[in-house]
Amino acid sequence: MNTYKIHPIVMGTKVFDKGMMTYQHDYGKPYTIPIYCWYLEGGDKKILVDTGELRPIQSADREKNIGGPIYTFEQGLAKWGLRPEDIDLVIHTHLHADHCENDYKCGNARFFIQEKELAAIHNPHPLDFRYVEDYILEIEQAGQIEIVTGDRQIVPGIAVLYTPAHTAGGLTVLVDTAQGRAAITGFCVIRENFEPPPAVRAMELEVIPPGTNINPAAAYDVMLKVRDMADILLPLHEPEFAAVDTIG
After folding, report:
1. Residue 173: enclosing H or E segment and its boundaries?
2. Neighbouring residues of 65: CB distance < 8 A, sequence distance ≥ 6
3. Which band of pLDDT confidence, cut at 50, 70 and 90, is reported for residue 1?
């Protein structure tokens, strides 16, 4: 059985209203989220999940808010002895800009992208300004994209699960680790989405959908599915991982 270690690397942040994470809850509260690139160490391939922001703001205030350092793409990879050209595979949770701005630097990588994400980035709905097709043009023109249409194994020990919740083509990445199966969510949430406070649970809600979603009821059901199949839940923007080097 192939197992992996997961290294969360902060390669950007956003400061916005907390309700952008927690649907119908905690609006009006300023909140800082980390934007991660996840290095999956194990096997014979160098594998990333997402590539983060191109020019992250590296400020003391933001690092204090998330509880850990913020890196550029090159700095974050160098922490693990890597360079962009060393990367063999990149799996995209989705194609909002903050998750794919460094794609073009990985000239030797194959990129696994869900088909609906590719459609969306080339023809986004006016409401979804987060898609910027410029960030994937180089890898598309170079033929580096492998289109994902459903659930599938990427390599032994790593699979993707189609989870349309935050976007129509979201992919949750399932990683076998020594501590069990980890799920890097294919939708933008924090720990609180999976572990709601008592006031929310009193409403008989088991989870809170992403603050931005394609359908709140469907997103709720997707979250339950991911929660119930994972031993280790890794919400895509949870700040606690900013201070963690290795999971699994």
Report:
1. strand 171-177
2. 13, 15, 32, 239
3. confident
